[in-house]
Description:
11 helices
Amino acid sequence: MATAAGWPSSKVVMIESGQEVPSSGEVATWLTATSSMYAASEIYEQLIALERDFHQSRGQSGRALQLRRLEFEERALSLRVFEPHFVPGLLQTPEYARLRLQVRARLHDRSSGDLEDAVAMRMARQEVLRRKEMRFHFLVAEFGLRSGAYADKAVMQRQVRFLQGVSADNVKLGVLPVGVEWHVNIDHGFWMFDSSQVLIETLTADLRLTQRSELEDYERVFNILADIAVYGNQAEAIFAKITSDLDSDRSVGCE
């Protein structure tokens, strides 16, 4: 590749690893060297969009990250959230939120003060649920509520009981039961604001998707999952069974 482009090999490595963003001319050189059929202008525009939408979280305070998410929420009229492994931040209890945020705080060596600021800001974000003109649709997976990956059984039990009390008219909460086939292959959570952008949180960054084709794919996936989720009394029955099972596990553990 370096020979074909007339570049030093180190430049190729820098571009491939994402450490250097190529110019429009360099994109054209790359496409020529690889005999690509794509137009340089189209690829460059996508590259710039990706660079803009990949928001690094490393080095930022926990509170700043929560504020950024709040900015998206305050501008939206509808929010669709799918979280297979965790409870969405807008539905978390303070103690569950603390344990979840503690994981990232440890990863990035943040102070205890930063953690508490992040927890407080996450709780403050929940005020957006009071916006009657905004519609919320949350999907959670039963196995994620049962795993307790980031919370002990007592905390998880109280968190699930909190979910049982979610009853606002503008909030729809669905549960994907254990044993139900999803019909889609997805293992990461995502937040869809209106139909204009999707936010995906990674360990070190937030990825914001705005391409129409990507939005259509995520909307299709959400609709598929929403159709197989259960709501109302069926969801409450799952929550009740989880809290009962967690209570039984705690009792056994104390003997």
